[in-house]
Amino acid sequence: MISLNVKKGYRLKITGEPPKELVELPKPSHVALLPEKIPFIKPRLKVRVGDHVETGSEIFEDKRNTRLKFLSPGSGQITEINFGPRRVIKEVVIKLDNKESYVPFEHINKDGLQNIDRNDLVKMLSKGGLWPLLRALPYQDIAPTDKVPPQIIVSLGSSEPFQVSPEIYLDGNTDLFAFGISVLEKLSNNNVIIAANAEDKSRLPDQSGRITHIIKGDYPADNPGVILYKTKTSAAQNNSWFINTQDVLLIAGLLKEGAYPTGRIVAVGGELAPHPGYVKTRIGAPVSHITQNENNKIKSRCVAGGIMTGYSIDKKSFLGFYETSVLILPEGGKRELFGFIQPGFNKQSYSRTFLSSINRSHLNMNCNMNGEERACVACGSCAEVCPVDIIPSLTFKCTLADEIEESLSHGLLDCVECGLCTYVCPSKIEICTILQNAKRSYYKEMSG
Amino acid sequence: MTNLLNRFFDSQRKYFEPGAKLERLNALFEAFETVFLATGETTSSGPHVRDSLDVKRFMVLVIVSLMPAFFFGLYNTGYQSNIVSGLSPDFMSAMTRGLRIVMPLVIVSYTVGFFWELLFAAIRRHNISEGFFVTALLFPMTLPPTIPLWQAAIGISFGVIFGKEVFGGTGRNFLNPALTGRAFLFFAYPVKMTGDAVWTAVASSKETAVDAITAATPLSLASATERFSSIQDTLSGSGYSFMKLFVGNYPGSIGGTSALFSLIGAVFLLILGIISYRILIGGIIGVLATGILLNIVATEASTPWFSLNPSYHLVMGGIAFALAFMATEPVSAPDMNKSKWFYGFAIGALTVLIRVFNPAFPEGAMLAVLFMNLFAPLLDHIEVKIRLGKRIPNV
Ligand code: SF4
Ligand code: SF4
């Protein structure tokens, strides 16, 4: 086992950590797919309102590569297809019936896996709708079906606040996980990195033979991009793939059972979550179902994914394909009198400029910007926290000046989009968003 | 209270919004409003929560750190003036006198500087950066107490315009604006900026213009020290013990004489993590190392400066103030850590060298900082290049 020490990063001490208790939710009445929330794809619908679908029926495919299919996580009827501005497909809503009928897929056992041709395996995964769970760095687009990755990174980490701890979903699933890892080994010619956080490791079921890297460090030390940055020895590895650990179980389930798996364990956290904890539910379940009737009286924000990297989502919407957490945070927005000269015993800060630096407890936070946007004051905090040694203040300035070559040489593509630089910036510059957009537009340019 | 203010600002905002009459003064409105009420704006993209620190607090803390030196400066300016003018040197009268001399300069610095800030903010349609409020306080603290107000006005104007705005405003400037203004005055009006007479304001100028015995500054005493005698002896002969120099109770610029109070401010900023210890310690090492080096090469024939105990360099003239508050100013200092060491070291070393080899520029610290400001981008560039060379490329 290799030890990785990630020195830069930051751990947010924020209230609302969900207790590690798993509750199984009843079946939701509806589920949905959110094509809009899957980066880069150009969806082509395969269904119309009124169609009946089974679990595993094709709902849409990616026009860029029609081998990328997205399947229904339940049986029932398509009741709504909602479009956003410029006819972006936002939601395809399925009203579930009680039949639970499903499309049968090929299945395979351990021995079969040893002998199967890699191409057939790729075919099984893409037909089974789970290929999109594999994604390629540095752009985090879906992995290309026609390439062999230099390696696949599986991170058992959950260092972003309020994520599902790996021991919860691995509990009782160790064999399935091992099977999933064998699938990844087959796909990558035995180049799989399995990384766990040092502090989680003792709680994990016996996987020790499987774990290759132990990570020490604060958020986002266990991000696959950071693991890659810390381990890579050549530029050829830049296009490594990664997959979320829970999704390894989905892939294993699909291949073992021959049916599209629909289960998801989702963390529900945040200061205002009425029932914080972990819930077992279905892919694409309604947000209100997952959070169990959120109290709508207080001004709150619902976030799908992490507090740093997630996106805010309407409470009436559904959980996306990749997300495994829902957070409910106070929206904030109250104006504070003489806010900037308060001693701030309860004000979270990376800096040491508030009394909170001697306060060890977890603090309440809302979504206030906590300041107005200003020019960069060269405080250097962003470079101190960047886990992949970018100097965000310089890189974002190059990016804004359209000096893309320059920002690439600064390591733009190594940026894991963790959001820490934006978080710490006293000038309230949206550094991470600027870099993210630059990466994406460069990618679009490159791929024509 | 909050509600009342909220309602007041909400009712006034319409006059400053785009398209409204006072649209161009939006920066003024924004600056004024956010002093009272923190923004209520919430995040529109991830990360959903943000750090509590903003530029306002950052700059307010710098101003707080300047307060010990500022108040000592008030006292010292008044004290020195009262002594020479034959008035009572007790604390209260020294303070009153100091206030009378210094406050007009501070007010001029803020109003004239703010006028330019606002003008550029209106032209460029951006907000006023709080960094200005630090600049406008630092600037008068570097001045001799006798400077005419109109010169102070020109100095701060030059500092804001040519030290900052011509480069595109705060964040893009590579010179320290306060020092730029100060250096401009130094070269434009040398009579008012150098010589022993300028460092002490004499009570009523008419009667004393001829026969006032103004006290010499430690630096000029040191430079005037005869060959073969020691600067320490000359200084202590004039009543300047090391302790007195350290505390800063001698004629000099308004806020820049006290190593002690500069140190207090610097330690405060270091504890809060606002300034870089690398620059500060680099600077101190630079001063001491150069001082020691000069000691080593000193011969019988060299000037007394060569054999001065290096620690004296740290307590004379503006070096302590310059290292604590000018060299560490983040925008004009290098961004990279090794460059910061080098930058600090070079400022310290240059200050001593200027003192020793060119006594015509007694306030070498100020020039050293400005000079190194010019090199900060280059230092950064070199260090970034080296650092990028170590990266596994990803394109
Ligand atoms: S540049 Fe910012 S978002 Fe990107 S990895 Fe560094 S800290 Fe994270
Ligand atoms: S955190 Fe913000 S203000 Fe500080 S150096 Fe980075 S970009 Fe500039």
How does this structure look, described?
The complex is a heterodimer of chains A (448) and B (395). Chain A has 13 helices and 20 strands. With 448 residues, chain A is of the alpha/beta class. Chain A has a 7-stranded mixed sheet with strand order 1-14-13-12-15-10-11. Chain A has a 6-stranded mixed sheet with strand order 2-17-16-20-18-19. In chain A, strands 3-9-8-5 form a 4-stranded antiparallel sheet, with no helix packed on it. In chain A, helix 5 links the parallel strand 13 (192-197) and strand 14. Chain B has 2 domains: 55-197; 216-250 and 258-386, no CATH class. Helices cover 63% and strands 0% of the residues of chain B. Chain B contains 18 helices and no strands. Chain B has helices spanning 2-13, 26-36, 55-84, 91-124, 131-141, 149-163, 177-188, 190-193, 205-208, 218-224, 231-237, 242-247, 259-271, 277-297, 310-315, 319-327, 337-357, 364-389. Mean pLDDT of chain B is 86; it is low at 205-212. Chains A and B meet through strand 19 and helix 12 of A and helix 1, helix 2, helix 3 and helix 18 of B. The structure holds iron/sulfur cluster (2 copies). Residues 376-382, 392-393, 424-427, 429, 431 of chain A line the site of one iron/sulfur cluster (SF4). The site of one iron/sulfur cluster has 16 residues of chain A, from helix 12 and helix 13.
Distance between the termini of chain A: 41 Å
* Protein chains sharing the most extensive interface: A-B, 79 and 58 residues
* Number of helices, where a helix is a run of at least 4 consecutive DSSP H or I residues of chain A: 13
CATH topology of the domain at 2-9 and 109-257 in chain A: Rossmann fold
In CATH, the architecture of the domain at 2-9 and 109-257 in chain A is: 3-Layer(aba) Sandwich
Which terms would index this structure?
heterodimer, A: 448 residues, alpha/beta, Rossmann fold, OB fold (Dihydrolipoamide Acetyltransferase, E2P), six-stranded mixed sheet, B: mainly alpha, 2 domains
